[in-house]
Specification:
Layout lengths: L1 H6 L5 H13 L3 E7 L5 E4 L10 E2 L4 H8 L3 E5 L4 E10 L2 E11 L5 H21 L5 H5 L7 H9 L4 E3 L3 E8 L7 E7 L3 E9 L3 H20 L4 H16 L5 E9 L4 E7 L3 E6 L2 E4 L19 E4 L5 E5 L1 H4 L11 H10 L8 H12 L9 E8 L4
Length: about 375
């Protein structure tokens, strides 16, 4: 399978997988469904955009495999065929679902295990192929993205990832019209760096501001600089371009994967919440100036220790500023309740669940501000 996908054209990965799976498992059909940007529906790759009815993630067999990240099979007694739905993901980042219909006698635990391996190989191939084709990105779209949202989604590292020491999940809202909020992460052998930014303004101007800041932070991080120096150089880059007319509220964190020691630079929003031993509380951080507000601003990192079993939630002001039809703001009390209600969900599903509750609280169907929610479960190293 790996050889077949390497030799296939970037847009023809499904065809290559189809031919091999058909030969090996006598499959009747092989379909690839991609999760949309809002993570609410699944859409087929082999259909033109907007021409078929999408499959909801909730209350569907493929959605069950996608949500649980486990194979799920359903049998058609009339045709004696079994539809095996297999999650397609890359290092914890959920991409979609591979659905294979095979005769019932070919549906064995060994075959399902092999098909799951094939789905994982396909996921890795898709990530590489997306550099050369728009096919898989188009299949993710339930609607047209705004230009600002197009820029923001291309800037993200993914929407979830999993390692032995931690698991991460993140989501932006509104998915098809995001403009200033962003998240970024990067891991080495010993550290995880996580940044969350909220650029001021709206539309493409906010997206341009965030793009400048995120790339400045990456440039400083890849130069091997400390967390404080990363904030300082990004601050200078933004101020040098906007001269204080635009700035970003930013939260930077650097986790030691062995000890759990965490460096934090709080340059504004978002807020940081800790769920430890069943108790949720907001962590009071040392507030510092947003990036780009003034020239030559120094930044200092404070320290905190995460413990195995901790869950960290990061929430931007687009969540707190949501108002109900009666004018009531989405309160910290409601957020605490949402944190407790989602405590059994994996981090990849928590941001979507919290943002759905926020949308239900909102007075208008259209968001007044964009929002980001990031969930981090800390396991630590043995």
């Amino acid at each position: 399978m790996e050889r077949a996908l390497r030799r296939a054209e970037p847009h023809a990965l499904l065809e290559a997988a189809h031919d091999l799976i058909t030969d090996l498992y006598a499959a009747v059909s092989v379909d690839l469904l991609m999760a949309d940007y809002a993570m609410t529906i699944l859409q087929p790759v082999n259909a033109l955009p907007y021409t078929v009815e999408p499959i909801p993630v909730n209350a569907s067999a493929p959605g069950r495999a996608f949500g649980a990240q486990e194979p799920y099979a359903e049998t058609d007694p009339l045709s004696a065929l079994v539809s095996v739905h297999l999650p397609v993901s890359v290092r914890g980042d959920r991409i979609g679902v591979l659905t294979v219909r095979v005769p019932a006698e070919r549906h064995t635990p060994e075959a399902v295990a092999e098909l799951q391996d094939i789905a994982e190989i396909l996921g890795h191939a898709i990530v590489v192929a997306e550099r050369d084709t728009d096919l898989y990105l188009q299949a993710r779209r339930a609607n047209r993205l705004t230009l600002a949202a197009e820029m923001q989604w291309q800037l993200l590292p993914g929407r979830s990832c999993a390692r032995p020491a931690y698991a991460l999940g993140a989501q932006l809202e509104p998915a098809y019209a995001i403009y200033g909020d962003n998240f970024d992460w990067s891991a080495t052998a010993n550290h995880l760096t996580l940044t969350l930014t909220d650029g001021m303004g709206e539309g493409i101007e906010a997206s341009l501001l965030t793009n400048l800041a995120v790339n400045a932070l990456r440039n400083a991080r890849r130069a091997g600089l400390s967390l404080s120096d990363q904030a300082y150089l990004a601050d200078q880059a933004v101020y040098g371009h906007y001269h204080g007319a635009a700035y970003l509220e930013t939260l930077l964190l650097r986790f030691d994967l062995t000890t759990g020691e965490t460096e934090i630079v709080d340059a504004g929003s978002p807020k940081m919440w800790l769920l430890r031993q069943g108790k949720a509380e907001q962590l009071e951080l040392e507030a510092q100036l947003p990036l780009g507000m003034f020239e030559d601003t120094p930044y200092n990192a404070q320290r905190f220790y995460v413990q195995p079993g901790d869950r960290l939630l990061f929430v931007s002001d687009g969540v707190y500023d949501v108002t109900s039809p009666g004018g009531e703001r989405y309160s910290e009390k409601a957020l605490v309740r949402a944190i407790h209600d989602t405590r059994l969900l994996p981090p990849s599903q928590v941001p979507r669940a919290i943002l759905q509750e926020v949308v239900g609280h909102r007075a208008s169907p259209d968001a007044e501000d964009d929002a980001v929610v990031v969930c981090l479960d800390w396991h630590g190293r043995p």
